[in-house]
Amino acid sequence: MLWQCVSAQVLEDQVSFEIVTAEYSHWVAGVKGGGSGYNISLKLKAIPAENIVLNAVYFDNYEAKLTQSDKDNTRFFGKVLLSTNQQPALMNDDKLNTGAKTETEAVLPKFDLKSNECVIEYTEGNKTKYFKSDKLEKKAIKHPQTIRSFQ
């Protein structure tokens, strides 16, 4: 019998940054093999303090690495590539898959989340912390969308 040890992540009650909006959308490319996945966007009220780095977001049983927008330092983006409608080269090419977790890499969720919740993993100083937000909204899109157009 196999046993898996999972450590519970402690959620912070308060954080020094405020999430204004958290939105995600599911997309499927309009061409066979063009891919599918989720894009997620976080908008903060202000630029986080210098000692705070937003690392990842957990939502809908997925994890996405967060990157800060070049155009607006209060916006952060993440993406998840799914195996649906994916050519094998897209799933394995590091240049195309940088920062994305594919469905085949998915692990047991770290958090029990409702459909309107997400958890932000961030580093404050040298310590990794977690904060749960209930502001997550699913947005429908009418056409394929890339992470670039989501910014």
Secondary structure: helix percent: under 10%
How many domains make up the coordinates? Answer: 1
Number of strands: 10
User: If you compute it from the alpha carbons, what radius of gyration comes out, rounded to the nearest whole angstrom?
Assistant: 16 Å
Oligomer status: single chain
List the defining traits of the structure above:
six-stranded mixed β-sheet; four-stranded antiparallel β-sheet; 151 residues; 10 strands; single chain; mainly beta
Could you characterize what this model shows?
With 151 residues, the chain is mostly beta strands. The chain has one domain. It has 3 helices and 10 strands, in the order ββββββααββββα. Strands 1, 2, 5, 6, 7 and 10 form a 6-stranded mixed beta sheet that branches. A 4-stranded antiparallel beta sheet has the order 4-3-8-9, with no helix packed on it. Strand 5 and strand 6 form a beta hairpin. It is globular, with a radius of gyration of 16 Å. The termini are far apart. The relative contact order is 0.26. The N terminus is likely disordered.
How is the topology of this model organized?
Blueprint: E1 19-28, E2 36-44, E3 52-59, E4 62-65, E5 67-68, E6 75-81, H1 88-92, H2 94-97, E7 101-102, E8 118-124, E9 127-133, E10 136-138, H3 147-150
Parallel strand pairs: 1-10, 6-7
Antiparallel strand pairs: 1-2, 2-6, 3-4, 3-8, 5-6, 8-9
